[in-house]
Amino acid sequence: MEGFHIMDLYGIKSHLERAKAHLNSPEEHSLRYSALELRFCLETVAYRQLQQYGDVFPGHMVGVWKADQILKLLASFDPLSNQEGELSIAPHAKDGEVPSEWTPLGKTKIIPWRKFRTFYNKLGSFLHAPAPKPAGEERKPITRESFSEIIQALESVTKATVILAMKAVIHAKCDCGATVYIGQSEFDNDELVVCGNTKCNSIYAKNTTESGEQVLNRINAITFTCQKCEAKVPVLLERIWAPVRCSHCSATYRLDLAFTSAKIVE
Hints:
Blueprint: H1 13-23, H2 29-51, H3 67-77, E1 85-89, E2 103-108, H4 113-126, H5 148-157, E3 169-173, E4 179-183, E5 193-194, E6 203-208, E7 214-219, E8 222-225, E9 232-235, E10 244-245, E11 252-253
Antiparallel strand pairs: 1-2, 3-4, 5-6, 6-7, 8-9, 10-11
Helix pairs in contact: 1-2, 2-3, 2-4, 2-5, 3-4
């Protein structure tokens, strides 16, 4: 299986080779071109891994296209996305026994999220003009040695012969027709879940029934349409006086509640 690494499942080999070629140039600006190619590699790895899930991923991931954030979310959504492994098959054994002979199908090669984030931010700092520093503070220089660990990690990724995705999810069917997903490992926190359809953006709470089933229950909220992007913006009643931000375009609103009369009902 080792010989299959030429497949380049993540599609980064050409960018990686260009990055290494720029590092061989004596020109200092070539280092920045190398940083650009390596950052492109990292982004491609993250987006390719995301594609493995199709349309099955939590709603709060919709619209997130920053590579390090994608891998962080995947790490909480999929227990396999943050570790390497080998996929093998074996004939079904009798009486439920573990098979003794396995045939390897391929190996996954990944960059753990924390290390990925370090690489991604480090390269990003090289792609911006340096900001003025306080007097006496030294600026950390960019060197060829700065890239060695990143290149080694990406070269390992090019040797992957399989890309795996484990969809450990809880889901609910939204009234808008979309399916709302959440990673099983995220169910223990108190964060609310948002429908991935920006024209809906309904809010769901996590709940465990008496029988132990994990479910998503829709929460009633005041909803208005964003004036900039026309996405639906839900507002929980307990946050009705706080500033409200559209999750799609980040426009900020404050609700203006008013009434013209009050009527006794009892």
